[in-house]
Specification:
The protein is α/β, with parallel strands linked by helices and 300 residues long. The protein contains nine helices and 18 strands. 31% of the residues lie in helices and 21% in strands.
Length: 300
């Protein structure tokens, strides 16, 4: 039973991949399964210069998921390209998540990644503040998203996926802007801004006060966003949010996602991606259906 799926110019052997920031560079999960069996490896976000990240505490586990305030800590593009060389031994797509605090930074990192032969595709994180525009998040303004995606796409040859922030007012308009500007696929979505207070100390639990909320509890909300956007855009959607079971992934496929990314669940079950691939094969065989027939099969 074939699980192959095409996302833009890329063919994935199956629709399952990790979400950026939950799988390290990919190499950290070598002991848990054969990375070549994944539809893709999606790396931790990388920026032009090394980034220290936020002050601790950075993680707070909650009943429905977790809050994190890592702050996009990374080693910077110069050192990261050496990690990419090691990923080249695996027979799967390597998707590199990247970000910047200005248009110029985005373009410079994208050009470096575009020239590396191990990189299959770029995934752009637009949940970052535009320092030159007063700190407004790139991903919350449709015009800013269009300009950012358009300019980056002009400087690269490889496919560009755009990972949306769900903290924008109208996700559909953001998705349309990214599509119109040349995105090959839309990733829905990043984490939801949240916080927790320690009632004993009356202080925020996270050192940065607030962070990104992820885990099973966000799935119904992200599912709704995927459903709404799938009706309005034509490029493939990669769903990301709260996937723990095969049923979670199936829901995303049914409302229109072509592939999925698994995030927080990698921390609690580092084998989950390989388990989901096997369960998906069994499901399609038992239902005598195909992945393509499943995608967008919602009945209303």
């Amino acid at each position: 039973m074939s699980l192959k799926v095409r996302i833009g110019n890329l063919e994935l052997k199956n629709p399952f991949m990790p979400a950026s920031g939950t799988f390290g560079s990919g190499l950290e999960y070598e002991d848990f399964g054969n990375l070549s069996e994944l539809g893709a490896i999606v790396t931790k976000g990388v920026s032009l210069n090394p980034k220290i990240g936020n002050k601790p505490p950075r993680i707070c586990e909650l009943p429905g998921g977790m809050l994190n305030s890592i702050g996009l800590e990374n080693i910077g593009i110069e050192k990261f390209v050496k990690v990419l060389d090691e990923l080249g031994k695996y027979e799967t797509n390597v998707i590199v998540n990247f970000f910047g605090n200005s248009l110029e930074e985005y373009i410079e990192v994208a050009k470096i990644l575009d020239g590396h032969n191990v990189v299959s595709c770029l995934e752009m994180n637009i949940s970052c503040p535009n320092i030159k525009e007063g700190g407004m998040c790139f991903g919350t303004d449709p015009n800013m998203v269009y300009t950012l995606v358009k300019e980056v796409k002009k400087n690269i040859q490889k496919d560009l996926w755009v990972k949306l922030t769900p903290n924008a007012g109208n996700l559909i308009s953001i998705a349309r802007s990214a599509e119109d500007a040349g995105a090959s696929a839309i990733v829905i979505a990043n984490t939801y801004t949240g916080m927790k207070v320690d009632v004993a100390t009356k202080r925020p639990v996270l050192g940065n006060i607030f962070g990104g909320y992820s885990g099973p509890v966000i799935k119904p909300i992200t599912l709704y966003h995927v459903f709404c956007c799938a009706k309005e855009i034509n490029v493939p959607i990669i769903a990301c949010g709260g996937i723990v079971t095969l049923e979670d992934a199936l829901e995303y496929f049914i409302v229109g996602a072509s592939a999925v990314q698994v995030g927080t669940a990698n921390f609690t079950n580092p084998h989950i991606l390989w388990e989901l691939i096997k369960k998906m094969e069994s499901y399609l065989r038992a239902e005598n259906t195909s992945l393509s027939d499943l995608v967008g099969s919602l009945k209303i």
